[in-house]
Structure formats: C-alpha cells, structure tokens
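Hey, can you fold this one?
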Amino acid sequence: MALLDNTDLKILNLLQMNARLTIKQLASELQKSHTPVFERVKKLEERGYIKRYVAILDAKLINRQLKAFTHVQLKEHSQKILSEFEKEVVKFHEVMECYHMTGAFDFILKIAVKDMEAYHEFLMQKLSKLPDIGTLQSFFVMSEAKHETAYLLEYNEK
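Sure. Predicted structure:
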C-alpha cells in the first residue's frame, strides 16, 4: 500500500464500486486527463492490485439462494492431507469460498446451492466422499444483512 498514492486509491475505490467505468469516466471523476489514468489502471493491473473484473450476480435469480457455511474437521492434520483436501474441495462449483482456519475446525466453506435438497446431494455425493473428513458442521444463512465485495481504501483529501 505504501506504493499507492491518493489517485491510485481513488481509482481502486471507484473500480470496486463499478468495474465498467471507462477510462474517460474515471478521468472525469478524478479530474485528470485520460492518458495518465489509463497508465495508472494498467500499472495497478500489472502490479496485481486489480486481480480481475467480475459481474456480481443475484443469487436468487440464478437459483443459488441457499447459502451454508460448513465447518470441516479432518481426521489427520499433515501438510499432505490438508493440501489434498484443499486441492479437491475447491474443484466443486458449489464451494464459493474456502478458508483454512485455526481453531476447532480446519476449514470453513461457503456453499451456494438451490435448496436444501441440493445441499444434501452435495454433502452426500461430493463433500463427504473426500478422504480424511472427520466432522462436518453446517450453518445455514437465514438472511443477509451485509455482503460487501469492496474494501474501503482510505486516502487523504487534498
């Protein structure tokens, strides 16, 4: 972050809110000319600050309205077992996020499926068939109060 100035931070904030902004729109918002803004965006992409551009879909409209957070505890904790589990579980399209954790459980998975029947099928036909699973504990989302995809990047107003 030390390499980013206020203009870079503003660009990142704007693109997180709307990745479809054109260079012209960004330049207008920043009150700068097109070429330097274009060069900054390219540099942010090259340096890895911008990983990719995506569209965020409405889960209900695409029939993925049931969300579960599933805690997974493995029977063994060797590096090989942990790595193999992670390598396999991320292949499942139902798994939206996978985190290796400290604490009582080894992994937390965010699962998105159509309904409880689809979750049960995922659990029985995919997840539980992975080797070395000890305990699974699932928590289902009843409502979503906040879901952010953007990080607030603070900068100095000048």
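The chain is about 35% helix and 20% strand. Let me know if you want another pass with a different chain boundary.
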